[in-house]
Design brief:
Layout (H helix, E strand, L loop, with lengths): L9 H5 L37 E3 L7 E3 L12
The structure holds iron/sulfur cluster (SF4).
Length: 76
Amino acid sequence: RAEVLPESDPAAVALGYKADASKVDVKKWPTYAKDRLCANCQLYAGKSTDPMAPCGAFGGKQVSAKGWCAAWVKKA
Ligand code: SF4
């Protein structure tokens, strides 16, 4: 099982990752929107119902389904 991405990871900080997307600073990260979550991101390597899954933007470390970061891309 892959390592969980800490919010303090420099790569996570650089992309504004929050495990709880409601904590995203919208002034700093204007591309965040409420319906944008790891669970519906193209880079979330799991089912949308999985609570955590590896993320391609962070070397496969696990991110939270309810999270968000600036690399979010709508799942095709
Ligand atoms: Fe979540 Fe997508 Fe960012 Fe990965 S790239 S942390 S799945 S929003």
